[in-house]
Amino acid sequence: MATADAPSSGRERVQVVVRCRPMSHRELVARRRSCVKVFTRQHRIEVRGPGRRGPIDTGVRVFEFDRVYDSKCSQQQLYQEVAHPVVESVMHGYNGTVLAYGQTASGKTYTMEGFDDQPEYRGIIPSAFQDIFSYIARNQSSTRFLVRASFLEIYNEEIRDLLVPGSSAASTKLELIESADVGIFVKNLTCRRMYSLSDILHLLMVGKKNRSVGATLMNQDSSRSHSIFTVTVEASYVAENDPGKRLHVRVGKLHLVDLAGSERMSKAGAKGKRFRELTNINWSLMALGNVISALADGKSTHIPYRDSKLTRLLQDSLGGNAKTVMVANIGPSEHNYEETVSTLRYANRARSIRNAPRINQDPKSALLGEEILR
């Protein structure tokens, strides 16, 4: 820690990248056409309206982002280019967020989690875990580390702890609290100390089993909740240029967010319980969109963070003290043209948001600080 160069602070934009999955088996069987073109070198996405095939076409919509990826993009490439810089900054005491957004069945959970049993297909979350503990192994001779983790979901506008048994989580409504020392946090949320990569991977598996999923017409195993896996890394060290050789503590917090998929009621085939779930999902995503729009506008005197649990929890990630990357996931089929354009518009607005990340140096809430003083 003491010998590494920490990333520079200051106001910086939320980074937004787009990943387009390949055509699904269902889409190929239905003989759907692709309406998306990905120009990786130009960082550009073109979406052509259904039925429009002419060389000059006002139906073509063009979007530019910080990076764009087509179906050939590997999990390792996406992680190294998009998420690794955020994770690295967290190890230096910054807050960081990686946020996956998109339509149901667009590949968000594959991007964030991937496949557990195949290393080359691991997603951002397990790759981030590996990065964190590799960094600790390289620096533990000069730095003392403490790693904690929590895992929650927001289901029907209620916060559930994914690290307790499913029935207990469903019956316990967790509250959002705001304090001067910690900021916004979830009262009584399980937060466990992690000692190794295997510890934290096991925690991920426990949480995934407890997460709310359900079948819709768009996706047989669609996530019906927003999930946030949070890793807090504390590091105590002696600064090289400190003549007093005092111990300092830096605390970085990493939010790994897999949002529930956006869907239109007509396509989802939602009834009863599924209708209520989808109504709440769309409401919270609309609230998130309103926050993004207000921040992107730059003139709004009121940012509506309090409109939903999701926006409260992401308050630091959007317009606050964090380095943030949004990964917008889309599908290529013309059947989903309107949803794809909506996702790209949503993501494009987020590019205008500016955060003010700073190193969290010697905060009062640091557990290592308490241990050092004892």
Structure, described:
By secondary structure, the chain is of the alpha+beta class. It has one domain (87-373): 3-Layer(aba) Sandwich (Kinesin), CATH 3.40.850. Helix content is 32%, strand content 26%. The protein contains eleven helices and 18 strands. Strands 2, 6, 7, 8, 9, 12, 15, 16 and 17 form a nine-stranded mixed β-sheet that branches. Strand 10 (176-179) and strand 11 (183-186) form a beta hairpin. Helix 2 crosses helix 4 (124-139) and helix 4 runs antiparallel to helix 6 (197-210). It is globular. The two termini are 23 Å apart. Mean pLDDT is 87; it is low at 1-9 and 214-222.
Largest sheet: 9 strands, mixed
CATH homologous group name: Kinesin motor domain
**Total helix count?**
11
CATH architecture: 3-Layer(aba) Sandwich
Order of helices and strands: EEHEEEEHEHHEEHEEEHEEEEHHHEHEH
Output the CATH topology. Kinesin
